[in-house]
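Predict structure. Chain length: 319.
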Amino acid sequence: MPLLGFLNALDNVHHFDPDKHIPNLAGRVIVVTGGNSGVGKETVLQLAKHSPRCIYLAARTKAKYDDAMKDIAAAAPDANVKYVELDLASLASVKKAADQVLDETDRLDILVNNAGIMAHPHGLTKDGYEIQFGTNHMGHALLTRQLLPLMQKTTSQPGADVRIVNLSSGAHLFAPRAGICFDGLKTEMKSYNPGTLYGQTKLANILHARELAKRYPDIRSTSVHPGRVETNIDNVMMELNNLNARVQRIFDFLAGPMNVQQGALTQIWAAVWKKDEIKNGAYYVPVGKENQGSTLSGNAELAEKLWDWTEKELVEKGY
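Prediction complete.
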C-alpha cells in the first residue's frame, strides 16, 4: 500500500463514541465470533448497552463465555447475551453453531466475524487446511454461508439494515506475493513464516467481504483494520523487513498504539453507522476511514477465485 494511503487514513476519520453514536438496537439480533476477549468482547459489551433483542457470543468454551459475561453483564445487566460454542478450526463445529442460531431466531441483523488466530505455529485444522487459513477464513466463510439465507430474509423486513463485518488487519500487507497460495492451503505451508501466513488470512478476509458485497448487494459487507491494538500483531511480526512492513510501522507510529476499547471502534462503527455512509465491500481503517488496502486486496479476479475455491471446498466437505 502506498505511504500516501496510510497517511490519508489519519485524516477525515469519524469521531465515533459508542455511547453516543450506537443507535437503539431494539429488535436486532447479532452474532459476534470470538466475543469472549479482546476487541470482540468490547464489541459485544458496547452493542449490549443499546438494547438488542439478542447477541450470540460465539466462543470455544462455556468457561470463556462465563468469564467474559462478568464484565458484559456489569455494563449491560439487562442484555440478552447467549452462548454459542464455536471452534472455527472445525467445520463441523461451525455448522453446529450456525444451526443453533438458525433454530433459535427468525432474523439476523449483524454478523461480526471477529475471531481468529495470529501467527500460530505451523499445523492443520481438523479438516486439513493450513491452521490459520482454515480458522480465519474457511471457518468464517462457512459460518457466513450458513447464515446468509436468514440474513437475506431479514433484509425484507421493514427498516432492515443487515451488516457483515470481517475483522481483517493491516497485516494483509504481509501476505505472500501471490496473495493466496491456493496450491498450499491443504498443507502446513512450512516454507512460509507464520506472520506471512497470517497476512494471507487477513487478505482473504478483505477479499471475502468484497465478494459478499458483489453477490449480496442488499447486505452491507465490509472489512476493517482495528489499528495497532496493544498485544496485537506488532510484536509478532517485527521480524518482517519488507517495504510494506516498514510502511505499516510508520503508519502505526503516526497513529499511535490503541487499547482494546479503541481497537474495537472501527468494527463497531461498521456494524452500526449510517447505512448510506458505508460503502458496500469497502475496507476501513480507524475510525471509519475507507482505505484502498494493498493492490492484491482490490483484485476482483483474486476475490472471485477465492470465493469459487472456497465454495468448491465446502461442497466437497459436504456443506
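Summary: Residues 1-12, 231-241 have pLDDT under 50 and may be disordered.
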